[in-house]
Amino acid sequence: MRTSLDYVLYLFAAVVVVGGAFGIYDAVGNPINAPGAGSSSPNTTTSWSESLSHLPTGRVLRIVIIGADERPKDPGRSDTLMVAFVNPTTKKLALLSIPRDLRVPIPGHGSNKINAAFAEGGTDLTVETVEKLLDQNTDYYVKVNLEGFVKAVDALGGVDITVPDCEGQMTGGRHHGMHYDDNNGNLHISLEPGRQHLNGEQAMGFVRYRHSKYGDAISDFQRAENQQTFIKELVKQKLRITQFRRLLKAGRQVLDYVEYDFKWLEVVDMLKLLRSINPSEIYTATVPVGDLKIGGIYYAALRESAFHDELSRIDDYLYGRIRTDCPVMVYNGCGKAGIARSAAQQLQDAGFEQVTADNADEFGHKRTTIIYYGDTRYIARRAAETIACGRVSAGKARSGGEDDVERLEITVGDDYQPAD
After folding, report:
1. Rounded distance between C-alpha atoms, residue 271 and residue 12, angstroms
2. SS3 of 141, please?
3. Using the 8-state DSSP alphabet, how is residue 74 labeled?
4. What was the pLDDT predicted at 34?
5. What is the pLDDT of residue 302?
6. Is 238's pLDDT higher than 80?
7. Which of 19, 24, 322, 372 has the lowest CB atom count within 10 Å?
8. Could you tell me which of 171, 213, 165 has the C-alpha nearest to residue 188?
């Protein structure tokens, strides 16, 4: 039996555009109401360069993104779900991945894995279930199936991706990259690690990869990271005006495989908005879960407190609020007297609440480094802006769960200049 469709769906940025391809063509190539514009164009003076007048304003927009494995006489399931949060005012985008095994109440159907909502009630029930999980209303949805994904990526000319070495550690270095074969599901993945250009079928393998032909598997979180990586690269490489013809071509080819509830002028505005967002600044997160077994069936159990914290972080990011409440340890790494205390005071003056200073294990650091642990990447960037230096990077995993403790470790180097 064919495996479930585990792929990402950010084709509302590159493919959904397509759903209103004719409208985008008019809006980009011929400002509405310009001479020669089609009679079907609304009576408005909106043009490509003007404000986003066709999207709801003054609040965050929420788009449910659904990947569906639909076949004749089988409604299939939506084994990968995402919610895109977009703030048109701050031009910030956050993506929340929802694990397919998450146990949730499905309205009218009891509690089950969230991917069962699609089988029970299609897109409408899936959206309703997601809204119940978030305790928030959503604005739009986009549903894409397998064929639409492949055709869209090919029509866009493929995408460059850095394939991780998922199998090196599990095979003791005998095999590397991503490899898996499922003849029943017609899924064949053969990707070596490293930066490379992927066509549609290869991209599908990249975002669907979960099990290895050599045994073992990657976690839902790792798979979500792969999907989010694909999204960022797709936006970065393809959502450019120079790709306009390819976007239109993709739209025409995948129109039969995409379902959405955007109006075409809203699609135009959404594309304009997405083009203004820096892909490297997209906030990505996954619903935090634990393990649960009921009657021998595995479920992902929602960690409610952590989930509420994550939604709060997303909200802070979308509105430009940067948290400064995590512990920050500042080390003197260059040997200059008082340099760590100076940087610590500068951070405290900027609102950082838990800052301590000490000497590093050794001096001689030329460059300042800022290592973040837990979900504190944006706090680390704020710290770098505050002290006007610092190379930001994620801390390496440590034993005992210490890597999950949110904190920053700043080692001050010669490049730091104390504030006057």
Report:
1. 9
2. strand
3. B
4. 36
5. 96
6. no
7. 322
8. 213
What the block records as the tokens of 44 is 């408005």
Torsion angle of the four alpha carbons 386, 390, 394, 397, in this order, in degrees rounded to the nearest 10? -110
The domains of the chain, with CATH numbers, are 11-318 (3.40.630.190), 327-412 (3.30.70)
pLDDT in tens, 102-140: 999 999 999 999 989 998 998 999 999 999 999 999 999
**DSSP secondary structure string, 192-232?**
-SEEEEE-HHHHHHHHH--B-TTS-B--HHHHHHHHHHHHH
| Contact (CB, 8 A) for 126 and 66 | yes
Name the phi and psi angles at 86, rounded to 5. Answer: -130, 130
Partner residues linked to 301 by β-bridges: 290
Q: Which of the four pLDDT bands, split at 50, 70 and 90, describes residue 399?
A: very low
CA 95, CA 82: separation in Å to the nearest integer? 7
Helix (H, G, I), strand (E, B) or coil at 11: helix
d(CA 272, CA 215) in angstroms, rounded, equals: 44
Residue type, 401: G
- pLDDT tens by residue, 335-370: 999 999 999 999 999 889 899 999 999 999 999 999
- State the pLDDT at residue 245: 67
Average pLDDT, the chain: 78
Whether the Cβ atoms of residue 81 and residue 92 lie closer than 8 Å to each other: no
In the DSSP assignment, the letter for residue 35 is: T
Whole-model pTM? 0.64
- Tell me the mean pLDDT in the region 264-275: 75
Give the span between the Cα atoms of 47 and 18, in whole angstroms: 18
DSSP at 148:
H
Structure tokens given for 38: 């089609």
Beta bridge partners of 96: 83, 285
11 is written with which tokens? Answer: 């084709």
Residue 148 sits at the vertex; the CA angle it makes with 142 and 153, to the nearest 5 degrees, is 105
Buried residues in 97-126 as b, exposed as e (16+ CB within 10 A): bbbbbbbbebeeeeebbbbbbbbbbbbebb
- At position 296, the amino acid (one-letter code) is G
Residue 380 identity (one-letter amino acid): A
- The pLDDT confidence band at residue 389, using thresholds 50, 70 and 90, is very high
Rounded to 5 degrees, φ, ψ at 224 are -60, -40
DSSP state string for 406-420: -EEEEEE-TT-----
List phi, psi (to 5°) of 206. Answer: -60, -45
